[in-house]
Design brief:
Strand content: under 5%
Oligomer: single chain
Number of helices: 5
Helix content: 55-70%
Distance between the termini: 73 Å
Radius of gyration: 19 Å
Largest sheet: none
Shape: elongated
Length: 115
């Protein structure tokens, strides 16, 4: 019997068993320190642009997502987490976050109109 048959193959990185994209967005909203200092100003600017009738490119969230990922890794130092997000992951998270913020904005606008 070989040693890796007992302990598993060497240098095998386990897969993350949750949706990192959703968890990162949840972290951005739920972590009080990150939200107040970093994410809330971005949300406010997004809402101001939407109020002015301007379109916002989903990649406008790129910097805040990179910053959130760094903070996330520091708070949750899991060996499964990569050093950084690849371009595809970053684009997907940007689009998901953009869609959520846009839905939230539209919902708030609709609520204001009903009042």
């Amino acid at each position: 019997m070989l040693i890796f048959e007992v302990f598993g193959p060497p240098h095998v990185k386990e897969e993350i068993d949750y949706d990192l994209h959703d968890d990162l967005i949840y972290f951005m909203n739920a972590d009080p320190e990150f939200y107040r200092k970093n994410y809330f100003p971005v949300q406010s600017r997004f809402q101001n642009y939407c109020d002015a009738g301007k379109d916002v490119n989903p990649l406008a969230f790129k910097k805040i997502i990179v910053k959130a990922y760094e903070s996330y890794k520091q708070k949750f130092p899991l060996p499964q987490l990569e050093e950084s997000l690849d371009d595809e992951q970053l684009r997907e998270i940007c689009e998901k976050l953009h869609n959520q913020e846009l839905e939230s904005f539209k919902s708030a606008q609709k609520k204001k109109e009903e009042e």
